[in-house]
């Protein structure tokens, strides 16, 4: 069963969306390229940036990620519904007593 993600901190507009059409290219020994399609679904990897969070906001986000680390996550971004998973690694930095978190969410539109 999917879990809805409703962060208390808004995803930053600097977050990058990488679209994956599920096609992989292989270079053959003779230099020719061949493509393989692994289905018709398009995926998106979102490098999510959450910036300038208080300690409480950071702890809430981390608790959600740890509690739901193996769960399918639904999330609405810019009125588009996604369903996918957060990758297990994240980056954290500090600005004074505020926290910045970056984590990758790989999903598909639903």
What's the short version?
The chain has 110 residues and is mainly β. The protein has one helix at residues 55-67; strands at 3-4, 16-20, 23-27, 33-37, 43-53, 73-77, 80-95, 98-109.
3D architecture notes:
- The structure is a single chain.
- By secondary structure, the protein is mainly beta.
- The protein is 12% helix and 55% strand.
- The chain contains one helix and eight strands.
- The protein has one helix spanning 55-67; strands spanning 3-4, 16-20, 23-27, 33-37, 43-53, 73-77, 80-95, 98-109.
- A six-stranded mixed β-sheet has the order 1-6-7-8-5-2. Strands 3-4 form a two-stranded antiparallel ribbon.
- The longest helix is centred in the middle third of the chain and has 13 residues, at 55-67.
- The chain is elongated.
